[in-house]
């Protein structure tokens, strides 16, 4: 490409109807994991009918439900989120009064997390939607579900 071709390429506006070239992204597993995660969350949000639903709420509520009194640090590890991303989620859930916190007698620097009755109700609704969503995903992956879960767990175990 000479300077004239480069200049034309840099000033050309790509029409929205034109296919977008992905280049090396086409073969990156991580890129496709991100697209799949995004599509999955959009579909889950549509099922819930809650446009304000934030990513991770269901998982965080479920983990707190199954581990009443869990600390934010343990919740962070269990949900695969670091402190910088779990803190805003907890702040939102506390603000929505879906979660409450209590002092942790074993460690005054931390606190214990519990679902409120509204949190239990929200979790029940989200769990029903998650079950329906998982059935849809089962249809997509078919008999490869266990293999897919195994590979996803392996990615987590090796990279985390």
UniProtKB/TrEMBL annotation:
Gene3D superfamilies: Winged helix-like DNA-binding domain superfamily/Winged helix DNA-binding domain. Residues 26-157 form the HTH marR-type domain. Coiled coil: none annotated. It comes from the Bacteria. PANTHER family: HTH-TYPE TRANSCRIPTIONAL REPRESSOR YETL, TRANSCRIPTIONAL REGULATOR, MARR FAMILY. This is MarR family transcriptional regulator. The lineage of its organism: Bacteria, Pseudomonadati, Pseudomonadota, Alphaproteobacteria, Hyphomicrobiales.
């Amino acid at each position: 490409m000479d300077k004239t071709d480069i200049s034309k390429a840099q000033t050309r506006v790509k029409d929205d109807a034109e296919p977008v070239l992905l280049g090396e992204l086409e073969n990156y597993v991580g890129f496709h994991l991100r697209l799949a995660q995004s599509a999955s969350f959009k579909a889950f949000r549509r099922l819930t009918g809650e446009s304000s639903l934030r990513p991770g709420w269901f998982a965080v509520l479920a983990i707190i439900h199954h581990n009443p009194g869990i600390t934010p640090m343990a919740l962070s590890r269990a949900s695969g989120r670091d402190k910088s991303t779990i803190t805003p989620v907890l702040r939102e859930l506390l603000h929505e009064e879906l979660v409450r916190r209590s002092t942790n007698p074993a460690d005054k620097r931390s606190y214990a997390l519990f679902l409120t009755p509204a949190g239990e109700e929200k979790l029940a609704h989200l769990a029903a939607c998650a079950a329906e969503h998982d059935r849809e995903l089962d249809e997509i992956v078919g008999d490869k579900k266990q293999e897919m879960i195994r590979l996803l767990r392996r990615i987590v175990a090796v990279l985390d």
